[in-house]
Amino acid sequence: MRETNFLTENNARHIWHPMAHPAEMLANPPRIVKSASGVDITDIHGKTVLDGVGGLWNVNLGYSCEPIKKAIRDQLDELPYYSAFRGTTNPPLIELSYELAAWFKEDGLSRAFFTSGGSDSVETCLRLARQYHKVNGQPERTKFVALKKGYHGTHFGGASVNGNANFRRNYEPLMPGVFHLAAPYPYRNPFGTEDPAEIAAAIARQFEDEIAFQGADTIAAFIMEPVLGAGGIMVPHETFMPLMRAICDKHGILLIADEVITAFGRTGAWSGSRLWGVKPDLMSTAKAITNGYYPFGAVMIADKIADAFESNKNATGSIGHGYTYSGHPVGAAAALATLKEMKRLDVAANAGARGEELLAGLQALRKRHELIGDVRGKGLMCALELVTDRVTKAAAPKDAVQRLQDAAYEAGVMVRTSGSNIIISPPLVITATDVNRIVAALDAGLTAAA
Length: 450
Ligand code: PLP
Known about the structure:
This protein is of the alpha/beta class. The protein has two domains: 31-64 and 347-449, Aspartate Aminotransferase, domain 1, CATH 3.90.1150.10; 67-345, Aspartate Aminotransferase, domain 2. The chain is 40% helix and 17% strand. The protein is built from 14 helices and 16 strands. A seven-stranded mixed beta sheet has the order 4-10-9-8-7-5-6, sandwiched between helices. It is globular. The mean pLDDT is 97. Bound molecules: pyridoxal-5'-phosphate (PLP). Pyridoxal-5'-phosphate is lined by residues 117-119, 122, 151-153, 225, 229-230, 258, 260-261, 286. Belongs to the class-III pyridoxal-phosphate-dependent aminotransferase family. InterPro entries: Aminotrans_3 (IPR005814), Aminotrans_3_PPA_site (IPR049704), PyrdxlP-dep_Trfase (IPR015424), PyrdxlP-dep_Trfase_major (IPR015421), PyrdxlP-dep_Trfase_small (IPR015422). GO terms for molecular function: pyridoxal phosphate binding; transaminase activity. Its cofactor is pyridoxal 5'-phosphate.
């Protein structure tokens, strides 16, 4: 390996990183992660810390999952690539589609469209939603409704439904015909209440109001994350998603569940939709589907949508969309091995149990650290929102958030920052001891940041 200065300087010189300012790379260089094992990562200086980020909410089984690594190696030997565009397919992909149909049967989803990641999956959902209405004889249904604080990736469609200015402003104008409702965010919202059920009802009223204003017959779909992730972890009240489902049904609007983070156990249930007892029309997945070891994703499709396309014999039903890597055999083999391991280890149950311990630990920290304004979480997706004043809720400055992250790292745990939020999303295989390590490191970080 080259020496540290070479790596840092050339990283700054030649790499533009996602979600980072290229001009900051030398003054504030990224940590260079060299290796990983179990739930730990090791940097080029030899420091090993628990990965409280879980890669990027995707390495749910940790870094030493041999069956997935072997499946990738074996598939590279057998068939390293072939296209799944019309005319060809491959055995691991077919087997995966069979397993996914069983996995998501309870969610009412039986067909899969494969992608190379989360943004691709969201884009696919948006396109299929519009096309469904064309197939169904309602071509004027083209608009989308989404939530503020929602995150749906970075393609133009996804960016257009994103509910955070940071991911929109520099890329405007985005897709027209997208409307945003308030986020289910008790700590900050326009409704003058912190009651999650009241907030759910208020957003549902906003939705009805927007539908009346736009005209139901112009709206293709409503998209939401069952638990909002990158926007700062917002856990809606249990009534929220069912309410939105009912409104969609009443007006012929499709419900897209963006489960790029929540599918495969992170919330403590095997899907976020299942957590809330809702059956979506389209579900975007990616990330944990291959445990982060291979870029891959799947859009799961409900029978209603599938029937409309499959019974349509003209060009409107033909899918003019897809990626070179839609149905990559190595990704499919990785996903098959991942599904098997997730089930064997019952990681959803562990995420639920460890998540409760983690949330309790974070709530205890809030009692001792004034810097914490709010604590939120479901399963192993949790956040601390940092404020300088609990009464005014003024956001903590960037340098305090950075100090916390650095001190937590020194104390042995990597966490992620997003604005004034600290996001904690470790692998789902962590133990109770690991939970204590995370809480202790955050404790040290909060002391350093105060
Ligand atoms: N949708 C959600 C809910 C996400 O959290 C993300 C990424 O974090 C995406 C879409 C985009 O996924 P990707 O970064 O793999 O393109």
